[in-house]
Structures are given as C-alpha cells and as structure tokens.
Amino acid sequence: xxxxxxxxxxxxxxxxxxxxxxxxxxxxxxxxxxxxxxxxxxxxxxxxxxxxxxxxxxxxxxxxxxxxxxxxxxxxxxxxxxxxxxxxxxxxxxxxxxxxxxxxxxxxxxxxxxxxxxxxxxxxxxxxxxxxxxxxxxxxxxxxxxxxxxxxxxxxxxxxxxxxxxxxxxxxxxxxxxxxxxxxxxxxxxxxxxxxxxxxxxxxxxxxxxxxxxxxxxxxxxxxxxxxxxxxxxxxxxxxxxxxxxxxxxxxxxxxxxxxxxxxxxxxxxxxxxxxxxxxxxxxxxxxxxxxxxxxxxxxxxxxxxxxxxxxxxxxxxxxxxxxxxxxxxxxxxxxxxxxxxxxxxxxxxxxxxxxxxxxxxxxxxxxxxx
Amino acid sequence: xxxxxxxxxxxxxxxxxxxxxxxxxxxxxxxxxxxxxxxxxxxxxxxxxxxxxxxxxxxxxxxxxxxxxxxxxxxxxxxxxxxxxxxxxxxxxxxxxxxxxxxxxxxxxxxxxxxxxxxxxxxxxxxxxxxxxxxxxxxxxxxxxxxxxxxxxxxxxxxxxxxxxxxxxxxxxxxxxxxxxxxxxxxxxxxxxxxxxxxxxxxxxxxxxxxxxxxxxxxxxxxxxxxxxxxxxxxxxxxxxxxxxxxxxxxxxxxxxxxxxxxxxxxxxxxxxxxxxxxxxxxxxxxxxxxxxxxxxxxxxxxxxxxxxxxxxxxxxxxxxxxxxxxxxxxxxxxxxxxxxxxxxxxxxxxxxxxxxx
Amino acid sequence: xxxxxxxxxxxxxxxxxxxxxxxxxxxxxxxxxxxxxxxxxxxxxxxxxxxxxxxxxxxxxxxxxxxxxxxxxxxxxxxxxxxxxxxxxxxxxxxxxxxxxxxxxxxxxxxxxxxxxxxxxxxxxxxxxxxxxxxxxxxxxxxxxxxxxxxxxxxxxx
Lengths: 371, 358, 158
Hints:
The complex is a heterotrimer.
Chain A: E1 13-17, E2 29-35, E3 38-45, H1 53-57, H2 65-69, H3 77-92, H4 98-126, H5 131-151, E4 160-161, E5 164-165, H6 173-196, H7 199-205, H8 213-218, H9 223-227, H10 235-238, H11 259-281, E6 302-309, E7 314-321, E8 329-333, H12 335-341, H13 343-347, H14 352-362, H15 366-369
Antiparallel strand pairs in A: 1-2, 2-3, 4-5, 6-7, 7-8
Helix pairs in contact in A: 3-4, 4-5, 4-11, 4-14, 5-6, 6-11, 11-14
Chain B: H1 4-18, H2 21-58, H3 74-84, H4 95-112, E1 117-119, E2 122-123, H5 130-138, H6 141-151, H7 155-186, H8 191-196, H9 203-206, H10 208-225, H11 237-240, H12 250-275, H13 288-296, H14 299-318, H15 326-354
Antiparallel strand pairs in B: 1-2
Helix pairs in contact in B: 2-3, 2-12, 3-12, 4-5, 4-6, 4-12, 6-7, 7-10, 7-15, 10-12, 10-15, 12-14
Chain C: H1 2-29, E1 55-58, E2 65-66, H2 73-77, E3 83-91, E4 97-107, H3 116-120, E5 126-129, E6 143-145, E7 152-153
Parallel strand pairs in C: 2-7
Antiparallel strand pairs in C: 1-5, 3-4, 4-6
C-alpha cells in the first residue's frame, strides 16, 4: 500500500513547489499547505541563489561594483547599473552631461520594455499558453540587438558608469530604435488577440490574487504590483531622477488590485515606455557622453541613498562610505523581495493554479530577491 | 481500383482455402494484431512529428529539421532515446500498479481501434453497438491515469490524477450527448451504418445548426477527455510539473505519451465518422461530375484526411489557448456544455422525428 | 433576460477564442514570419556589432608590435582579477633599462566582459574581440597570454 505522504495534523497536504519547478522561474522554493486544491499557506524559502553580492561589493571600487548589480535583476540590468551610477554621482556631486542623461533614460525605458516583454511571455506560459512566449521574444530580440550594438552585450551590459555612459551611442542607434518602435506598434495588437482578450485568460486573472491598496503599502510592494492596487509609487514621478521631470508621461494605475490589474499595468507600461522613447529619440542633445571624472573615485565619508524605478519596482542603493576607494557597506533594496512577501496574503484560499498565475503577475526574478 | 477491402478479402479467401475455419480466424487475428500495433507505432511517430511541426510554425520557429530529411526521423530518434533510457520505479511507489498503469493506458487505446472503419469495408470488428463500445471503453482511460497518479506516491501525481478523474468523468457526459445526437439522427449504433447514412451528405451539413453545435461541443469535450490543452490539467506543466506521469521515465513514459496521441487520433476518428462521414467522399447534391471526381479518391484517404484535419484542430487549440483552472473547467462543463447539449439533443430529436434534416 | 445574457456571454467568449485562433493560424500559414536562425550553419554569415564584447585581445600590428606599456591600469580596473601583467626590464639601444611586459596573462574563465579594462587602458593596447565560441576541452586553455611571442612595444608609446 502507498505510504502516508507528508501532511499536517489537520489533514492538509504540504507541497514543495520548487526549488526546481517550471513555474518558479528559477530557484524559488515555496512550501505550500493545501487542502485539496485550495491553498492554506504559502511560505517562500530563499537562499538557493545567494551570492552575497552586497558583501562582494565591499571589496570592489566604485567603478567596479556596478557590474555586479547586473547580475541581480538581470532583466533590468541597465536600471540597476543606473541606480548605482546615480548613487556614486550623488556622493561625488558630479554633474552628468545632458546627452548622457538622455541616453540613460532611453536605455532604461528600452530595458523596461524588454523586461515586460519577457514577463508577458512567461506569464502566458505560466497559464499554459506556450505560443506568446515565442512571440514576445521576437520583440525582445529586437531590443537586445539594439543593446548589443551600442553596449556590446545582450543581458549584462555594464553600460552606465559614474559620470555618464561607457561609450557613445552607436551611429545606427536612432534608426534601429525607430524601427523597433514601428515593429512594436505593429505587433502590440497581437498581444490583445492572443492573451489579453482571451476569455480563458480573463477568467483566470480576474478576481484572483486580490491585494488591497492598504495591504500593498504594508507589505512594501512597489512597482506594477502596487500600482495594480492603485498605489501611486512610481519613483520616476515621485522622486524624479535624470530628466524624468521634463518628460511627459503618466503613471499607470489600475485600482482593482487583482491579477488582471497587475497584468494590465505592465501591458500599458510598455506602451507608455514607447511614448517616452518617442519623445526622446529625436531630441538627443549634442555634447559629451561622460563627465570628466578622476581616475580613482573616492566617495566622501557619509551615507548615500538613491532609488530608481526598475521594471519590478523601487530599487534602492544605499552606500556607506568611510572615505576610501571602496564602499564600507552597500545595501540594495530589491523590489522583488517585498513583492514576494505579499504572495502568502494573496494566495490564501485560492486554487493551486492561481498561485502560479499570481507568481506570474508579481514578475519575480529570483536572483533579485536572493542576492 | 486498389483498396484495403480487396486486400483483406484476398487474404481471407486465400486463408480459408488453405486452412480450416478455426485456423483462418486465428491467423487473421494475429495479422490484425500486428497491423494494429504497426499502425499504433506509426501513428505515434507521425502525430508527435505533426504536433511539433504545428507548434513550431505557430510559434514562428522551424521545428525539427536535423534528423533525417526535413526532420522527418526526429520522432524515431526520440523513440530510440526513450527505449534505451532507464525506466525508473520510485522507491515509495506501489510497484505493481505503477508498472501496470502505462500498459492499461495502451490497452485501452488499442481496444478503441477495433470498431473504427478506416476505409470502405475495412474494419477490424463490425460491431453493431460500435458507438456504445467506444464511449464505454474510452471511460477506462481514467483508470490508468488514476492508477498512475496514486501508485507514484507523489503529491503532484496524485493531484494530477484527481483532477483528471473529475475532468474525464464530467466531460464524458457532453461528449456522450453529442455522440447521441448523431445516433438519434442516423438511428443506429453501428458505426458502419452511421457512415452509410451519410452517403447523401455529411451530418455536419445535413443537420443544420444543432448538429454544428453538437460538433463544437464534441470537439471541446474530447479535447478535455484526452487531457489536451487547454484542458491539460492532469499534466499542467507549470502547476504540477508533469502531473500524473511525473515519476515515469523511459519507455513507461513513452507508453503514456503514445497513448495520449493514439487517444487523440481515435476521438478524432470517431468525430470524423460521426460528423464528417468517415470514409464517405464529399458530395455536392446532384452535381455528378464533381461527385465522380470525389469518388475517385480512395476512401482511406478521405478517412485519414478528415481525421487529421480534426487532429490539427485540436493541436491548434493547444498552441493558442491558456489552461483553465480546475473549478472553471468543471463550470464550463456543468454550466455551459451540459445544458447546451441537453437543449441541443432535444432540438435534434425533434428534428429527427419531424424529418427536418436533409 | 437571463437567457439573453447567457447567450451573449457564450458568444463573446467564443469570439475571443476565435480571434486568438485566427492569429495563430496566420503564423501557421505564413512561414516568412519565422525568425529562427540556424546557428552552426550560418556561422559564415553571422555579423556581430563591432562593440560586441567577446573576449579581451591585444592589438598587434604587422610588425608584431603592440602598444602595451605594462602600466597595470587594466589589472587594477578589473573587478575579478582576470588580468595579470608580468613585467620585465628591457635594455633600450641607449643602454637604459625600460619596463616592458613579459606576459599579459588573461583568464577568460574569470572574465565577465565588463569592458572596464579596455576603458582604463591609456594606450588602447587592448580591445574587445567579437568572438564568442569559447568552449575548450581543457580549462588551462582558457588562460591566455595576450602578447604574441617576440612582440615588442611600438615605438613612441609611453
């Protein structure tokens, strides 16, 4: 006879989802307690991909540590690098040339689109539709090609350096970006046809994974996860950095707070990023792409904090300097970690299939949660 | 003209001349068994390749193109790989049931082959209650899945099996009702007679809108019954890793895999027989010239053409739609498909009594 | 009224499914949309952008001369200790001792292609190459010596 399988005293089954599981997009380990198909408790276990990046940064100089941050949230590596560069610039009080600022914002928004594209495909894949994943990669590939041409890499670019950007944009950059905008606009209606409008998809998403605005704030959720609950938390609007205060864009807000609202926020953000790129792409000012900096950067004694809006939410860099060439302590505030903490609250009482959908809408990148 | 029925009759007459009637039957049974197994293996290879090709083209990829000309031998290579792979049995599993389950799946799929008319006058077993037989045997599929899920001693497998049990049992109702509508119209449970009743036109065209609705319900229900996406909750890759066959590997997994495709083939063959006239050629009214040309095409090609069209339909669904949730799956059956098909069969009965169909 | 709503629901649901099916049928029947690149076959036609960061190489001209002075700026800039420069002292024609590189050791297996060494180099002696097929059978082969045998520093590079 089959032996008894792991269960709690009241007859619920304890199920290990992960660390090797198709839906966890990496090595997240969820210990869930289920009663039949209904979820009673979700307990995320971390630590499978801990590389102690914060400790590593303490032995690297202010120029060097930026490259490590690409390995955290690898889907928005540009934006992570951007935050670090901004924080160092804040400490050194470097004035970044306008051209560099525009290039940085362009790269940020391209990265945001690329990240959301991948999320969109993976999200549909979590729900069992395989085709959108490949269609999303077609557009993401176009962005990757643009990145490759200007930054020399496709994923971990290390393009933002203190004082500006590492190299000037490639001569083809503007042309390629405009081609991409045209491609994206021609394909974006397919997203509605394939996924958004689909009745099965809508039924799977609407009304599940509810997160109220108060809960979103108390769990520290940021980014599209919180904006799906109607919490205004776009760092680009609230604490503008670079030239975001001069750009005309709106913060995407949905008020329902369910999985579908979070989905819609991200889909609409892609179009919003396209409009930001359209505003800037023809108006890249002439000038230097990098400010003159000293060969060896030494931050003054003190504490510096910079937050930016990554594709997942509020990413913060906190540097404590003793005045040396390396930071005394670095702390990263990663959006995924806080967003993940809301999962238990959202998932209780819903079905196992919905857990996967909720994890999809949280847009988890495990190396970001577990540094 | 060359046809399957002539060959079978030739073999039959040759055997009955040379052997006693008992031996003739035994030898014919052996030949039939070998033929079914060969067809089985062949269908598995073709369908796997077809699925991968359809998936690839829908997903703007090329699909298999390395093994053999145009990747034609890809599924053969996969089979070879699965054959040499170790068939593991987990330590905590119920060994007997665990090893039995894939064979039950296969046997059920094989049994379903019996009453299907592959071409005119070419059938393993001309059963007078063929429709009933098919519906009855196909319900046995759920036993192998439950057995596999329970014996694996794995929580994912168990959940997959339980989902599958609920799903197959409920979707059988609406599949049965839509099959019933054709039985009502043709007045026979014999698959051959049902085909004969469509000599002047397929039921899909003769039966007005109610039969079209029955056809749509049939397709949805059999997609669910064969555990294909968007109803692949028993496997549900992103939720249950691989559902009921999580613990299976090597040839035992291959048997499940094969059984799934054979089941798809069989339900599509049944669908083609009931709604699209089986091996009946496509005829348009009294347009003699056209009908004559259509008659020229061998009946086996008509049958396989229709079946593969339905298979393509099911594959097309799989690569387009996201998966349903378990409660929505049951909602769809009990709140939508069952009431609609019940109302529909009422209409069809009325139609059959009053003779409103063509 | 209830029935009407029910029928409307079924109709709109079916319509949304048909829209999706139409889109996938389009891709199924339009093979020109296929974007697959058959990698090892198209190796000859692969074009890489000139900035692609594949591995660090040292630029040598026709006379087997490079521009590396052995200043170790790249070694200091590297976050992973990928580069190790071993210097020696050359005797110049004037009889003076002059520092020059003996070996420019580059550990490809440690390199993250961050481009910091190339930026740090004051004489543009090193650059990123557009190679990407780095697999080898022996890990020792990944440790490379970038300056070619008997290469000299180019005249006039300080």
